[in-house]
Amino acid sequence: MEIKDILSLKGKRKITMLTAYDYPIASLIDKAGIDMILVGDSLANVVLGLDSTTQVGMQEMLHHAKAVTRAVKHSLVIGDMPYNSYQVNPQNAVENALRFINEALCQAVKLEWFDKCLEVAKGIIQAGIPVMGHIGLTPQTADKIGGFKVQGKDADTARRLIEQATALEKLGCFSILLECIPDRITELITKELKVPTIGIGAGPYCDGQVLVTYDMLGLSQRRRLKFAKKYVDLSALIAKAVEEFKLEVTGKKFPAAEHSFSIQEEELKKLNER
């Protein structure tokens, strides 16, 4: 899947996107034919046990992005720029974006909206790197937008979101991620833009949808989010398997003969004759 393929899907069919942070999950997602994989900074919360996405850096993001790209043969892989890679020192943004492309072999990067977002996005795009914009609820700067809550619920803030989306498209972003925005506002934005919109907690009118895979699989330990549909509860299945392992080991049922290796009796006899 390439950028041009994603662009061509607008108005034809819904686009699918999931997060991945490791080789086995990325491989399964890719084989299922998901259009885009985001190596998300949600890594901080769902994999590394950190409190905030601002606590994850380039070292961790590149490490996990490399694992994902090793697995992927079909999906478009997007590296999520961590907070300190472009918001703390915007002058380092292009260099860090290039690392996602050159070192981790991602095909694009994603940026969350912040005060200097347009300036940073422009520099990265001019460096030849495809950019996905991200507006609405932006977890990296949630403290500056009133916390983790729906954005664009009044006319003024909704208008600002529309302006942000159109500005990012004008700069050359190939797609815009809309997070926690009222569905009718995402409908307006989606109709306004020529590039695809990808929603998370933004209703059904976006051109595509993304979820954090650990939420979808019931593996995340964070609080349940309204928009995060759980398709299976793997946590319960894993807990059951671990408990069975514990009981079988302590009860001397595992390993059984079929899980063990043997030696011929004559060889064992030779050993005992030493």
Quick summary:
With 274 residues, the protein is α/β, with parallel strands linked by helices. Helices cover 40% and strands 14% of the residues.
**Would you tell me the overall average pLDDT?**
96
Provide the CATH superfamily of the largest domain: Phosphoenolpyruvate-binding domains
Please give the CATH architecture of the largest domain: Alpha-Beta Barrel
Structural class: alpha/beta
What does this entry look like structurally?
It is a single chain. The protein has 2 domains: 3-232, TIM Barrel (Alpha-Beta Barrel), CATH 3.20.20.60; 237-272, no CATH class. The N and C termini lie far apart (64 Å). Strand 3 (76-80), helix 5 (93-102) and strand 4 (108-112) form a beta-alpha-beta unit. It has 274 residues and is of the alpha/beta class. The longest helix has 17 residues, at 155-171. Strands 1-2-3-4-5-6-7-8 form an 8-stranded parallel barrel, surrounded by 6 helices. The protein is built from 11 helices and 8 strands.
